[in-house]
Amino acid sequence: MSLAMPLSLPTLRRRLPLFFVLGLSLALSFVLIAARVLITGRPLFVFLLWNLFLAAIPFGLSAALSLAARPPQARLLLPVGAVWLLFFPNAPYLVTDLFHLVPHARVPYWYDLALIMSCAWNGLMLAFASLLDMHALVRRRLGFWLGWLFVAVALGLSAFGVYLGRYLRYNSWDILNDPFKLFYDIVQRILHPFHNWQAWGVTVVFWAFLLIAYATVRLLGSPRQPDADEH
């Protein structure tokens, strides 16, 4: 089974509204960033476009798997899943770009707030839309409880990845560019947790936030049971 697998047209038709809304939301972020560059003549927040591109990679991978006409086999699901997990932290990482919110001349504070919040929202929505796809694939193969275990582990690793990116300035490419230093820094934080309390504080708090937020989004998307008086 190759990546050039046939698409399920009924699934694609059901997903079109989601693709449209996500595209509209991403377009808003692009317009806000472009307008700021035109107003100030400075590309201050252009880096957010790259962050949004990285956040879209896991969604693209999971969407391709979920749109397949046939369930993906393990020999495809495992390597694609590994790449998905490698890039997945880039999506919730966008929330931490709120650190860049400081007053700037010539641009209202509320405008920069809306701009960065738009990008953070897109990061979270891309993350949760992607995780919904992967959760469904894992649950279909391994069952309900292992599906939720996958979600918890993926979000925990993602929260740790957010710490590595924001505080140690690693990115997904460093697993190839500088794997030994990356491995060393990870092992040091595992072996010496009390000397690296910030790493585990960020990881635990972000993991709890992402898990609760994902569960909320999932419940909001579940079909509502009719009330008794509606019968």
Automatic annotation (TrEMBL):
A matching Pfam family: DUF1361
InterPro entries in UniProt: DUF1361 (IPR009793)
Superkingdom of the source species: Bacteria
Keyword Coiled coil attributed: no
Keyword entries, A-Z: Membrane, Transmembrane, Transmembrane helix
Transmembrane as UniProt keyword: yes
Transmembrane segments: 16-39, 45-69, 76-95, 107-132, 144-164, 197-217
Name of the protein in question: DUF1361 domain-containing protein
Organism in which the protein naturally occurs: Hymenobacter ginsengisoli
